[in-house]
Amino acid sequence: MKNRKILFIINGLGYGGAESQLLGIMPAFVEAGYEVSLITVVQDLSLLNRLDSRIKHYNLGAGGIGSVVKVFRRLFRIVKEISPDVVHSHLFKSNIMSRMIKLRFPAVRVINTTHSNYDLAASVYNPYFIYRLTSRWVDFHTAVSVPALENLSKRHCIGSDRSAIVHNAIDISTFGQTPERTDTTVFRWIAVGRLIAVKDYKNLFDALQLMKPHVRDFVVDIAGDGDLKDMLISQVELAGLSKHVNFLGIIKNIPALLTNYHGYVISSQSEGLPMAMLEAMSAGLPVTGTDVGEIRYIVEKSGGGNIVPAQDPAALAAAMRQMMDMTPAELTAMGKRNTDFVRRHFEKSTILKTWEAIYENSYAVV
Q1: How far apart are CA 104 and CA 108, in angstroms?
Q2: Which of 264, 266, 247, 267 is closest to 313 using CA atoms?
Q3: Residue 348: Cβ within 10 Å count
Q4: Any idea what the Cα angle at residue 249 is, between residues 245 and 252, rounded to 5°?
Q5: What tens digit of pLDDT does each residue of 179-201 get?
Q6: What is the pTM (predicted TM-score) of this model?
Q7: What mean pLDDT do residues 73-89 have?
Q8: Phi and psi of 364, rounded to 5°?
Q9: Roughly what angle, to the nearest 10 degrees, separates helices 17-31 and 275-282?
Q10: Which residues are registered as beta bridge partners of 308?
């Protein structure tokens, strides 16, 4: 293999699916003999302690618009120092920065990864237009989900001969055996994700209010942190849900946490391919989720859950009630189907072989 030096670029190392995914796969490339470096653009480095010590890390310290020239000068100095064969970036801002590297260092092979669809109504600029404008400076563009790649394609951001879906990788071995579902007297739900608007926890809370008078006892634990934490806690208190909803904060050992629950719920109004949902499926949890991103495709293919329209609390409540009415044996069987599906399609070793082929320009686009 000729492309032995890989430089990864990502906006930051905050608590998010793209960040966790990258932190999980970089050490595997080190072990495969690659020389791996990482550039982060901004100062959000909450997960820095999870970075493998063998990976050299650079932070650009980007701030306001006034620091752009300084940031790019530092970026180009780092690239010249590392002299990478491959630059692989994740998320929009980092993808555009990597294209500027290609413009300055044309011999570098540049790979971009998109992790979700872009909400144009909420953007001050059009990411798809910028991708089209700079498309000559990327060698290959991947997306983690079918909808995300379809959007890139139909908006003419990348040609089909230079793009592919590469799913997130899951290390199944960290999740152990599918647990047996026994006592469901108190049905325990888990949700994992940042406390931000797109996760639409209000949708979940509205559904729980509808469920409360009609079902046996239940608990929903939410693992994660974010800007909306105080507001969401207030919503729970005002809705009279305090005895049903717990905010766990940041949990470092998610695989160990997931063994304590009967079902996983995701109430988002927008997603790509949710890493936390795949981890829950790996742990043998059945899923109740909203029809956004690739959630429907994954859950229907696995046969391990229920899908409802986004922003529809009544539908979400009905689907959660349906799962809570299942027997322990039914829940266990559904969870096992999820584990088996993730093992077949998202196993880390399989995904890493795909990345190596893309890096080496030997990937066969179908």
Answers
A1: 9
A2: 267
A3: 17
A4: 125
A5: 677 777 899 999 999 999 999 99
A6: 0.80
A7: 97
A8: -95, 110
A9: 70
A10: 290
pLDDT for 252: 85
Q: Which of 92, 96, 97, 55 is nearest to 76 (CA)?
A: 97
Q: Which two tokens stand for residue 277?
A: 């949902």
For the chain, give the mean pLDDT: 92
| DSSP bridge pairs for 190 | 221, 264
Spatial contact of 25 and 58, defined as CB atoms under 8 Å apart: no
Helix, strand, coil in percent for the chain, rounding step 5:
45, 20, 35
Residue 96 has pLDDT above 80, yes or no: yes
pLDDT tens per residue across span 3-22: 699 999 999 998 888 998 99
Residue spans of beta strands (DSSP E) within the chain: 5-10, 35-40, 56-59, 86-90, 109-114, 140-143, 163-165, 187-192, 218-223, 245-249, 263-266, 287-290, 305-308
CB 44 within 8 A of CB 125: no
Q: How many CB atoms lie within 10 A of CB 293?
A: 26
Angle between helix 275-282 and 295-302 (nearest 10): 10
Which residues, 6 or more positions from 122, have their beta carbon under 8 angstroms from its beta carbon? none
